[in-house]
Amino acid sequence: MSATQSNNLPLWVQDRDIVIAASSDAEWRYQKPPDYSRSKENLERESTRSHLEGTLEAIVQNLVRTFEMEVSFKTNPQQWLSVVNDRFRVSTNGGTEYTAADVSAQGTYNLFMADSEHYKASEENFESSAKLFHTTFPQGFPWEVLEVYSGPPSVTFKWRHWGHFHGAYKDYAPTGETVEIIGMSIAKVTDDLQIVSLEHYFDNALFLEKLTAGAKDSSSRNQESACPFSSWFKKIKKS
Fold it and tell me: Are 13 and 58 in contact (CB under 8 A)?
């Protein structure tokens, strides 16, 4: 695997598909490389920015998308090209700092959102959290850079994450709304643009409020009704 391509940019800040194609030796979470073809279609239709190749905005966007891909699909953090593995740390809203191994084991949703009224990170694992949000946003959950305010070694940028709420979130019915998160991040990078640290800042409470705005599914309100022995248990309690 070559660390650079013909345009002399490091591999990890090039298009995500180029990184995937070059990662032939990767240990993939689902035994095969991810397919971002649907995501690319969504980005072409719905992105609000179109960054020219080679610009700082495009480079930052590619780097973060590569990081997201590696976290989600490469099970061995030592194979992540986008970060300096032994130094990497990531935090959200000034909270706990996590290592690459932490993120790989628990997933970004769990570490970035923690425990709250509408999401219990402590009760989820990597697979369950990924399934939950993939179900909630069946058409995908794209991400783009809006603006870059400062360049390396401390890159400050504004971003947008969005998805169409067409699947149930836990027991809340989908509203069909386009749910959008606007956030800021600071990435400390090396001279060759690998990430040393990431600090994310966004309102995850507002995000969850939008996912719990729909009506609750009546079939999940009373779980006892699904149990054929529930009435028998009630009689035992009364006696």
Answer: no
